[in-house]
Specification:
two-stranded antiparallel ribbon; Rossmann fold; seven-stranded mixed sheet
């Protein structure tokens, strides 16, 4: 099964996904479910409190490393992995500028979906805008791997159906991310991906974007958080 390595390298080479600032929903996730930063600057650990070691997080499909780098602000041992060598080379440069360890960024092999981490290596995973940028069947294989490598929780976001979508899974024809696969999700499909019911998620949200003048739907995105032991894949 193709991982579209060539297409993603081309996409990052032309600057399609050079997002330099973290997504607000990822910061909310970290502050509410992983490690809260208080007004006095002190961090309060919320996840796996019984552990004495530093929390360890994976930014899956990390792109240029923006979220993995922000983990460091929460005193998290941060790791990032992406299919694109171009993206990882930029991530390493960005990490170096922020005094974040660059040796914890890895390029995912294009020949396998197996991740290069031990079982239960991470306390949490962030999969922001990446599991919907691949075929559904490949995303399901990666969910199996993320569950294996994580002993805590997984945050993920998914694009939902809007009038611009030609189908629920398609090859991108436009210049932005050209040649890659876009999979469109709804509530049922997200539950199928994780092999569980909506009630098992500890957070499940959908945000609709509408044009204020026409009132038409112009975008939709889902945000979910699930405990690894509730995933059945």
């Amino acid at each position: 099964m193709s991982n579209f390595k060539k297409e993603w390298n081309e996409s990052y080479s032309q600057g399609d996904n050079n997002i330099l600032y973290p997504q607000a929903e990822v910061i909310k996730f970290l502050n509410r479910f992983v490690c809260k930063r208080n007004n006095n600057g002190i961090l309060t650990r919320l996840l796996n409190k019984e552990k004495t070691k530093q929390l360890r997080g994976l930014d899956f499909g990390c792109g240029i490393g923006t979220h993995a780098i922000i983990f460091n602000d929460f005193d998290i041992d941060s790791h990032g992995i992406d299919i694109s060598e171009v993206a990882i080379s930029i991530a390493i440069k960005n990490a170096t500028k922020k005094a974040v360890r660059s040796d914890q960024f890895s390029v995912q092999s294009g020949d396998t979906h197996v991740l290069p981490y031990e079982d239960n290596y991470f306390d949490f995973v962030v999969a922001e805008s990446c599991l919907d940028s691949m075929p559904f069947d490949l995303a399901k294989l990666y969910i199996t791997e993320l569950k294996r490598a994580t002993n805590g929780i997984i945050y993920a976001s998914f694009i939902g159906q809007d009038p611009t979508m030609p189908s629920d899974e398609f090859v991108v024809k436009t210049g932005h991310e050209k040649g890659t696969v876009q999979t469109v999700f709804n509530q049922e499909k997200i539950c199928k991906l994780f092999g569980t019911t909506k009630e098992k998620f500890i957070y499940f949200s959908c945000i609709d974007q509408t044009d204020c003048n026409s009132k038409k739907l112009i975008g939709k995105r889902y945000y979910v958080i699930v405990k690894c032991f509730d995933i059945e894949v």
